[in-house]
Request: fold
Amino acid sequence: MIGKWQALVIDCEDPDTLAAFYQELLGMIRVQEDADWISIGDAADRPAVAFQRVDSLVRPQWPEPEHPQQMHVDVKVGDLDAGEAEVLRLGATRQTGGGKSFRVYTDPSGHPFCLVLT
Reply:
């Protein structure tokens, strides 16, 4: 092993808004915060999801390859309909694609993520 995972870093124009979205989605807490960087996780000494401010975000456009998704997060849920209602309430947008076991959404900054049935 070369090292240990520290964080998944997501570019966005508004770290506070996007961190709040993922905090509710994943049940995490803020473990580091300044004007241009917010990290959320289970605890300060555990791997985190971080949000860094960029001046001009080129949003992915699902599923268009001209603006590739670059990465996405899969979130396990026990009920797709209930999970969908909650992520839409938080500001997610439903996208085309998916099936009986998963659905595709974008977060408020346009990054794709999936709800996956457990």
